[in-house]
Protein: DUF6310 domain-containing protein
Organism: Corallococcus carmarthensis
Amino acid sequence: MRLRACAALLLFLSACATSAPSPAERASRNPRIANLQRAAVLPWTDGGRCVVREASQAWPVLVETCYRTLDHDRLEFHDTMGRCTVASADAAAVGLGFCVLAAPEIAVGAVIVLGVVVVGVAIKEALDAYELRHAYPEEAGTSRGTKVASREAEAQRKPRLKPEPAGQDWQPPVPPVPVDRTGRASCEPVPVPHAGEDDPHNECADKFPPNRYPGMDVLVGGVRFDALQVGVRVLWEIKTHQFDTYSKFIRRREIEKELAQIEKEQDAAAACGYGYVIGVSTQAHKDALLEADPLLDVVVTGCKR
């Protein structure tokens, strides 16, 4: 609660201390990228994954959420402006470091980093993806809306032939992954048929986020995801395993396998500027994933098999 009170106070101070930007400035400003650039000079123990996930929030809120993932042994905080000792007793109570770092503007010498900072992998990939999209705007973002819409309409017009599986491990072939001008897998979302014929799983993937492409998975950055959420840049991985019925040994093995998949998908999503959420059917499954990695964004869907 004290962290939230401090973050709220700093947001208020920011509003009071900053003059209203002109319309042109507001149009050119990208808070997400500004937050990523601001965070890039700090040492993060998780490679900056929490920062990428929260980058669209206001800076004090991002700091509140990700403060625990900083490498505190390499940081020194100095209240050079006297703001944290005067403005808020709550700020002093939760810690000088948080208050100084979450301030609307960090004064020179307020935050000292010991040693050389290597930009967190997730932050670097997100910034590189942003630069790539703006270097070739015709291949990214809203400028691709017509192209995506036409593909979506074409996919809906063409009847999907039901393939005959050759076995339990059969999956429909993935079409060639589109690439950008650098030869890297494109960040453009490409709908592809759901992998396999697991109807309960596919129904959950279509309805719960809800899926922008019902009946389809989506390829982003060369990686297949179960759904792209309608209206937001969030990719989903859906799990409908009967996790609660597994033995302890099988649960451990299942979590190990899922973490390897999640890491690959999470990196691809972050590199293309997307959020990433894992949907699971039960609270026990969520608890097991968060115990293995507390930074995951896991939601209980309640989907049944």
